[in-house]
Amino acid sequence: MTAFNFTIIKKSTECLGRAGILETRRGKIHTPIFMPVGTQGTVKTLTQEELKTSGAEIILGNTYHLMLRPGTEVLEHFGGLHRFINWDRPILTDSGGFQVFSLAKLNRIDDDGVDFNSHIDGKHIRLTPEDSIAIQNSIGSDIMMVFDECSPYPISEKGAREALERTVKWAKRCREAHKPMEKGQALFGIIQGSTYLPMRLESLERTAEIGFEGLAIGGLSVGEPKELMLEILDGLMPHMPENMPRYLMGVGTPEDLFYGIERGIDMFDCVHPTRIARHGSAFTPEGRINLLNAQWMKSDLPIDETCDCYACQKHSRGYIRHLFKAKEILGQRLTSLHNTHFMLKLVRDIREALLDGTFMDLKKTFFSKYFQNK
Fold first, then answer.
1. pLDDT tens digits, one per residue of 10-64
2. Which domains does the chain have, with CATH numbers?
3. Annotated catalytic residue: which of 131, 148, 266, 269?
4. Residue 142 appears among annotated catalytic residues
5. Is position 349 annotated as part of the catalytic site?
6. Please, where are the H alpha helices in 178-253?
């Protein structure tokens, strides 16, 4: 079994970005990395082979959703999520803490844990830090997240303080429930504090003291202005430990990759690329396009002439538009495949630019084209 290890290959002289290799028991991850989100054991509409062909080195699963369906009994029967979905590369699992935020109307929080009403059938569910760890053990993920409370935006200073205190207490309980690298599974701590930088710095210090294999920044991109997110990262990132991976949770548009990597982020995830794809929106070097627009009705151009994904090599914008208009699932699949491929290719290009010392040139060139129509 390969020990969990993070090595920085090169630091940029232009910014805080760095290129590294994250070694896990199921293979190497070249950082910076974008991680497609497979909430319920699937990246929506895509097969595992399509993900691999697109260059995915790691995908995500979600503790809360997998706990409800198929449930830990089924996962344990199959020997974990990897075998269940036939994926032999690393998996990272969210702890279920984000559902404390996203399903706020269905839960009640106290210092011990969270009471949920299932969004599926209304059944009562109790989730504690220890429960979250036990479920992630059953899932068999290679990187697990501590159970945290993600603050909404906006939130009062008092509310952010309560969530921070709870998150630190829960992080300690998660660490006690899962000893370092037990069963080959790494555990990452999560930094909270909303948009209050002093709280963010305090959360970082207290979380780092507990001792984790990596650190994540949660509670950003939850409705706050982009400028405020970047302001928090500017104040926080120079204080992050250099010797461990840094994960910006739930953030992942093309421009976000540049903004985050420039500030020292190593790992990203987001449902955005596949979510917008299912509604006909596609990434191109010249910005996003809406494939449902009438202008593409007779277009024989691919989504992106520079892209080597299956969708761009085999099909036209006109055909994919027709699929959406006819409500054929293939339209969603082809656009999801392209957007995922686009993000993974972009983060590889950024990594090469970090290694070559040309990151700022790449950022300037990409932004000049991507935002040219805005």
1. 999 999 999 999 999 999 999 999 999 999 999 999 999 999 999 999 999 999 9
2. 32-240 (3.20.20.105), 271-362 (no CATH)
3. 269
4. no
5. no
6. 197-210, 226-236
